[in-house]
Amino acid sequence: MNIFTEGSFYTGKYRNLFRENGISEEAVRHRLDDTWNELFYGAPDVRIYHPMGDDKGYIVDTGNTDVRTEGMSYGMMMAVQMDKQEEFDRLWKFAKVYMQHTEGRYKDYFAWHCKLDGTRLSPGPAPDGEEFFAMALFFASKRWGDGAEPFNYSEQARIILRACVHKGENEDGDPMWDPATKLIKFVPETPFSDPSYHLPHFYELFALQADEQDRAFWKEAAARSRAYLHKACHPVTGLSPEYANYDGTPAEPQPHGDFRHFFSDAYRVAANIGLDYEWFRCDPWQTGQSNRIQAFFRDIDAADYRRYTIDGQPFEELSLHPVGLLATLAMASLAADGPDAGHYVKLFWNTPLRTGVRRYYDNCLYFFSLLALSGNYRIYS
Predict the structure, then answer these.
(1) pLDDT tier at 3 (50, 70, 90 boundaries)?
(2) pLDDT at 258
């Protein structure tokens, strides 16, 4: 019987699905520590973190040889969860110095990618970076306390969120959340969303720690995001598109590609739903949704994961990140109660980190799943 009837936010308790499936605490601790060390200090074909000078560091997207706000903010979340303040501060210093705009229409937002030396490649931001930066900074404030700027973590988080909500009110750019629907945008200028950007479990916490005037906004944004995912995820397969309109329907093809299908970005939806269920456990739909997506992939070998229409039709194109997809399917077990939940936990446990050029995205998702399934992806508030 599942004794976890309320979310971790309320109980302070976190499930260890590895232990529930017969894996020892000692083995899990070793795997966590070893995986951190491999990703941050391991062999050249595994590591994704690199220190820079005396006080900076970066996470490299190995497939594109650049630095992205996605990876930087992910790295900061990994570091705060593992209680690694030095690496956290180095990543934040790099992002603050090289990526965060200090003026113009993007002031307080971050250029979404840059070269390894910090030279910006594009000025525009990608909102998934901002929301992860803010959450990691709030957690850092609670774990380690605020220091001198730029390590006054909680105020840095509030600066980011302030811009995300209020940008555009004085003709100074565009907000990252659509004011009418309170849904996160794909980028500030677009009239559609990315389902994998929706993190209602973060917004619940923003509602406690952001500027007081914005707390009601974040509380409503959490509810709106949960309702949105009901629409964006297919009712039979559980698959969602990479980009979706505010009504949940797949967005039209964009100049940079067709994102109506289930592919790389969309993998994160299953993981996000799992973690929201673990932390807040307030949406019963999430259990059925997690069962559905696990069932869809039940008889498909990871080596044969592909691009799919959201109703489940496969393309010839193979997945670029099969380990990442497997990791998110395993993380869905936090919410699932069907016959596949334990299967995916065990399958994930027996899957090693990815090596080689495309390892970055897969292994970020891998580490988040390892944290979550072991009960170590925690709230600090």
Answers:
(1) low
(2) 87
- Long-range contacts, stretch 310-315, CB < 8 angstroms, 24+ apart: 310/234, 310/237, 310/239, 310/240, 310/241, 310/250, 310/260, 310/261, 310/262, 311/234, 311/236, 311/237, 311/239, 312/234, 312/236, 312/237, 312/239, 315/261
- Is residue 337 flagged as an active site residue? no
Catalytic option among 87, 89, 242, 265: 265
- Backbone phi and psi for residue 304, each to the nearest 5 degrees, phi listed first: -115, 15
CA dihedral 27, 33, 36, 42 (to 10 degrees): -100
Q: What confidence tens digit (pLDDT) does each residue in 222-257 have?
A: 999 999 999 999 999 999 999 999 999 999 988 788
The two three-digit tokens of residue 307, written as one number: 């691009």
Looking up tokens 């044969």 gives: 304
CB 12 within 8 A of CB 18: no
Kindly report the backbone phi and psi dihedral angles of residue 254, in degrees, each rounded to the nearest multiple of 5, phi listed first: -105, 165
**Residue 194 catalytic?**
no
The catalytically annotated residue of 70, 131, 178, 340 is: 70
d(CA 272, CA 74): 13
Predicted confidence (pLDDT) per residue in 331-379, tens digit = 999 999 999 999 999 999 999 999 999 999 999 999 999 999 999 999 9
C-alpha 141, offset from chain centre:
20
